[in-house]
Write a structure and sequence with these properties.
Layout lengths: L1 E2 L10 E2 L4 E3 L6 H9 L1 H4 L8 H7 L10 E6 L2 E12 L2 E5 L5 E8 L8 H9 L4
Antiparallel strand pairs: 1-7, 2-3, 3-4, 4-5, 5-6, 5-7
Protein name: GNAT family N-acetyltransferase
Length: 128
């Protein structure tokens, strides 16, 4: 984990050779639902959520918040990279006032195995 200081948000899109990291938009809603409904993704995040529940819960424009970036390939969302603040004393919980940031990622299964997560995380950390 790294120290998290003040960061201007939203950032300008971050471009790599293949990807764009950007804020979520209305066009990302179907992919957000697919991501959280996926049984394969759910294996790593405590289970898939029911699609009908997600259809009701996900707003027209998926939630924009500091630290959450969509990973875009050729104009379509394939995943997301997240920074969540963690309290050093209680690292299991994301807290608005936490002093450290944890980098995470989720990708649609069709995007697995192509190096997109490594590329997106390196870019998000400014190490591309």
């Amino acid at each position: 984990m790294t120290e998290l200081g003040p960061v201007a948000w939203p950032p300008a899109p971050i471009r790599t050779e293949r990807l764009v990291l950007r804020e979520p938009g209305a066009r990302d809603r179907p992919a957000v639902i697919e991501l959280f409904a996926s049984p394969q993704v759910g294996t790593y995040i405590g289970g898939a959520r029911p699609r009908d529940e997600l259809e009701q819960a996900v707003p027209e424009v998926p939630r924009r918040r500091p630290g959450h970036l969509v990973v875009d390939l050729d104009g379509a969302m394939i995943g997301m990279v997240t920074f969540d603040r963690r309290d050093a004393e209680d690292p299991g919980h994301a807290l608005p006032g936490g002093g450290r940031a944890e980098l995470g990622y989720l990708f649609l299964p069709a995007a697995w195995g192509r190096g997109y997560a490594a590329e997106a995380c390196a870019a998000a950390l400014g190490r591309e």
